[in-house]
Every structure is written in structure tokens, then in C-alpha cells.
């Protein structure tokens, strides 16, 4: 889940290239944990 190179991205690049995927993963985890 965590990328050791993420610190190399500026805020704009992080928001464009990393955040959307992190947001999807968090939503999936929340959905699956609530089903337990």
C-alpha cells in the first residue's frame, strides 16, 4: 500500500497520481470491514 518513493512527489503530483488510488483502497477497506 505504501510507496517509499511517494515522498518524491510534490503535492500536485501526489493528488493526481497517488491520492485517487489511496482513496479507492480506503473505501474498499471500509466496505469490507463493515461487512464483518
UniProtKB/TrEMBL annotation:
GO BP annotation list: porphyrin-containing compound biosynthetic process
The Uroporphyrinogen decarboxylase (URO-D) domain, residue ranges: 1-32
UniProt-listed Pfam families: URO-D
GO molecular function: uroporphyrinogen decarboxylase activity
Record InterPro entries: UROD/MetE-like_sf (IPR038071), Uroporphyrinogen_deCOase (IPR000257)
Protein name: Uroporphyrinogen decarboxylase (URO-D) domain-containing protein
Organism: marine sediment metagenome
